Amino acid sequence: MVKRVLFFLYGVTCYVIFLGTFLYAIGFVGDLLVPKAIDGPAAQPFWLALAVDALLLTVFAVQHSVMARPWFKKSWTRVVPSTLERSTYVLFASAALALLMWQWRPLGGQVWEVGPGPARAFLYALFAFGWLLVLLATFLINHFDLFGMRQVWLSLVGRPYSRLSFGTPGPYRLVRHPLYLGFVCAFWATPHMTVTHLVFAVVTTAYILVAIQLEERDLVREHGESYLAYRRSVPMLLPLGRRVGAELTERAGEGVAP
């Protein structure tokens, strides 16, 4: 029982660290109410600052992609208890993001500036929509499973863990990856686009496109024809064109496996 309590406390700690890092990231990207944001005066030569930022983004991308792969989880759970695997992933992801924000180097320069008016208001609204869509998407696919809390809670109460079934709730009927769509909106929607912000948006968008391919390969392996049918019926990121059929939605059930 003591071990289960410790596991639960570890999971809660990882989740709280994630929440703090996530909230700071909103301010970091939007230059809102944080001591250090994505933009600022350039303090180093352009190419040196760019190299540091590229390295930080690479660390974040490698951590996110490698630790999420099934082959890594299989090896990792020989060291870390399977109950704590997701919480540990969340902890490492939060650390990688915190490192990026802490060591980020502004590059200077301006790409566009949108003054007061409807266009500026629209960009701020799109920024807020992006982050809200990210949160909504996590809750639709079971937020607490995605961030490790469900695993440690089930362990605490002595219940076995069961994987979530594949499903297409809410915006998952319009696009396959609404969570990533939310990030793209949040990263690009700014009335003050600097060279620094543009580099961040371009690289993170490119990473998202690569991450989707890796994630979908795992989902096809896990869910087989159900996911292949879903992929044929629903667009990847933009809600244009094909729509998922009623019979597919009924067959999918509730929740989407992360």
Q: In summary, what is this structure?
A:
The relative contact order is 0.14.
Distance between the termini: 28 Å
What is the count of β-strands? 2
Estimated radius of gyration:
20 Å
Give me the strand/helix succession.
Answer: HHHHEHHHHEHHH
Question: Which structural class is indicated by helix and strand composition?
Answer: mainly alpha
Q: What does the overall shape look like?
A: globular
Q: What percent of residues are in strands?
A: under 5%
Number of domains: 1
**Major sheet: order of its strands?**
1-2
Which residues form runs of ≥5 with pLDDT under 50?
244-258
- Number of distinct helices: 11
User: What's the helical proportion of residues?
Assistant: 55-70%
How much is the average pLDDT?
Answer: 90
| Main sheet properties | 2 strands, antiparallel
